Amino acid sequence: MTRRLPPLAGALAVALVLAACGSDGGGGAASAAPAQSTVVVTPDDSAPFSLLEGRYKFTWKTVDCASATFEMKQQDGSFVYTKQSKMPSFTAILVEVPAGMYAVTQGEAACTDWTVTLDRV
Fold it and tell me: Is residue 10 part of a domain?
């Protein structure tokens, strides 16, 4: 005789399994702000942000800029990524980014309309 779980019990079992799979176990020190898997930085919103350790897709878009110089700098460590480009938009992959607080800046004074998106991959 085969016994089936009622739909609600089955859904609860699936939710518990998914929650358990999402945990990486262990526990590190909590930061003041939660680490983010996607961050969007603009000239108007360039506050420091927290990242988890890992690999990130660094995408930038500019409007009417002859060139742009982006810098992503770790505030609580030594990681720095700098990219100067004449491309209005492009994507780079950053590997081995350590966990920490970061800020993104753009150094060309004539380039005032830009967006950087960081996605954890």
Answer: no
